[in-house]
Amino acid sequence: MEQHVDLAFVATVTHDLKSPLAAIMGYADLLADPIYGDICEDKVGYARKIRRVGQLMLMQINNLVMVCRLEKGDPGWLSEDISMATLFAELEDTFAFMARQGEVDLTFATPADLRVRGDRARIALLMQNLLNNAVRHTSPDGVIRVAATLENNRAVVEVFNSGSFIPESERDKLFQKFGHIKGSNDGAGLGLFVARGIVEGHHGHIALDSTREHGTTVRFAIPALPTRPTAAPSPARGCLRVLLVGAAGALGTDLEDAGCQVLRADGALEALQEAPRAKPDAVISFESLPDLSFDDFRYALGMDPSTAQLPVVVITATSSNPPDGIGAVPVSTDAAAVLAAVHTAIASAAAPRPAGG
Question: So what CATH class is 241-349?
Answer without folding.
Answer: alpha beta
